[in-house]
Design goal:
With 426 residues, this protein is an alpha+beta fold. It has two domains: 133 residues, no CATH class; 283 residues, Rossmann fold, CATH 3.40.50. The chain is built from twelve helices and 20 strands. It is globular, with a radius of gyration of 23 Å. Bound molecules: ligand LAXINWYW. Ligand LAXINWYW binds next to loops. It catalyses: S-formylglutathione + H2O = formate + glutathione + H(+). It comes from Pichia angusta (Yeast). Belongs to the esterase D family.
Length: 426
């Protein structure tokens, strides 16, 4: 069990309602919330949050356990503060409603079906913290190679749709309950869901060999009801291009950059506190290879290492990139450069960790259609901090499929394990 603690004097100074408030967290860095005004300043308890094994999210508050979560965590016994209270199921979630007049307690915590908000109280009500809780619904748990593939769904505030994500928890997750495991994010290519790589990428044996979890996000919002979103395989559904669209038609939902970086990964970190999202690497295939490089260059130091399988390396100069950048970002090419790995690398100023890339010479998207252009990335790196650091392997006779990807998963796993500080299990 671990605790985060706001500290006895941490919130004595009132924050204006709506202000961002950070609470120090002993293990996960910082929990961010928004201050909200609940009336007169009142002496009350300090805030203590605690992870209770088996429960997704909960709070230990002045000795009383409050909890929120989806139907998976409803079995828990919740003790609430004294005074009038109600605990009910609400759309499959838990509704906590507690009040007490006089100093001490007042308020309500209410979770929507998947994304909830938990209102926590610090030593005075003026400084109450409003913490968004992202709640994952487990759709399936599938035993695989000694660990488990967990299929999750949640409501996304970024895409305003339901989003699917798969998470592979290696056997160490179950066998070593005191361990905290690094994370590899795998971004898939055009047309993929979280299932393609989960089923055909064969990361599981290597996740178990080294002891890391694998996150497989989806490639776009689904069912956003945008006219034309399902018309082609390389734009719209299955082709979100991991960016935040600025063109009006797409900008409300097609926010895969913010979704992954600001919502999904922090949400998983809050729910799976035994995964170490501060020790995380990223990889991907094709559009996902582009995505992995792009996230890595835009967020120096956030990921310990990056690799890519047949990445779209210079989307500003290929047909897939023209279609997606043009459609989502408009005609202004300066906006395209903000997402193009072969542009971003020129300005990159983070760690000079080598980057591993494999591309097959029999990949028609490489040799025939010139969609991938890995040589452009190598060329761009020559004037950058990463000069000599792009380890590009052109593999004779390999195509673009998962037969190609899974042939080199082993090399990419070893690459990331090295920078995640992992050794093979004996
Ligand atoms: N016309 C094809 C193209 C789709 C395709 O090849 N998708 C690749 C990724 S391409 C770049 O991002 C892929 O990974 N497909 C899924 C798979 O399981 O192979 C089509 O529509 O299928």
């Amino acid at each position: 069990m671990h605790c985060w603690n706001a500290g006895r004097n941490a919130h004595r100074k009132p924050h204006p309602p709506g202000a961002r408030v950070d609470i120090a967290d002993g293990r996960n860095g910082v929990l961010r919330g928004r201050a909200c005004n609940h009336g007169p300043q009142t002496k009350g308890p300090d805030l203590l949050g605690t992870e209770i094994p088996g429960h997704r999210s909960s709070l230990l508050w002045h000795g009383y356990q409050l909890s929120v979560g989806n139907s998976d965590s409803l079995q828990q016994t919740a003790k609430t503060p004294p005074g009038p209270r109600r605990i009910a199921r609400h759309n499959g979630c838990e509704l906590l409603d507690f009040n007490r007049s006089g100093p001490g307690w007042h308020g309500r915590a209410n979770t929507s079906p998947n994304v909830g908000y938990l209102i926590c109280f610090t030593s005075n009500f003026v400084n109450s913290i409003f913490i968004p809780i992202m709640s994952f619904v487990t759709q399936a748990e599938i035993r695989s190679f000694g660990g488990k593939l967990v299929k999750l769904q949640h409501d996304s505030k970024e895409t305003q749709t339901k989003m699917d994500v798969n998470l592979y928890l290696p056997e160490q997750y179950y066998e070593q309950p005191d361990s905290k495991l690094p994370v590899l994010v795998y971004l898939s290519g055009l047309t993929c869901t979280p299932n393609n790589c989960s089923e055909k990428g064969f990361w599981q044996p290597y996740a178990n060999k080294y002891g890391f979890a694998v996150v497989y996000p989806d490639t776009s919002p689904r069912g956003a009801s945008i006219e034309g979103e399902d018309e082609s395989y390389d734009f719209g559904s299955g082709a979100g291009f991991y960016l935040d669209a600025t063109e009006e038609k797409w900008s409300k939902n097609y926010r895969m950059y913010s979704y992954i970086l600001k919502e999904l990964l922090p949400g998983l970190a809050s729910s799976y506190t035994r995964l170490d999202f501060d020790n995380m690497s990223i990889t991907g295939h094709s559009m996902g290879g582009y995505g992995a490089l792009m996230f890595y260059f835009r967020n120096p130091g956030k990921f310990k290492s990056v690799s890519a399988f047949a990445p779209i390396s210079n989307p500003s100069n290929c047909a897939w990139g023209h279609k997606c950048f043009g459609g989502y970002l408009g005609a202004d090419k300066s906006k395209w450069a903000e997402y193009d790995p072969s542009e971003l690398i020129k300005k990159y100023d983070g760690p000079d960790t080598p980057i591993l890339i494999h591309t097959g010479t029999a990949d028609p998207f490489y040799f025939r259609d010139h969609q991938l252009l890995p040589e452009n990335l190598v060329k761009a790196s020559e004037d950058s901090k990463l000069k000599g650091k792009i380890d590009l392997h052109l593999e004779e006779g390999y195509d673009h499929s998962y037969y190609f990807i899974s042939s080199f998963t082993k090399d990419h796993a070893a690459h990331h394990a090295k920078y995640l500080g992992l050794s093979p299990k004996l």
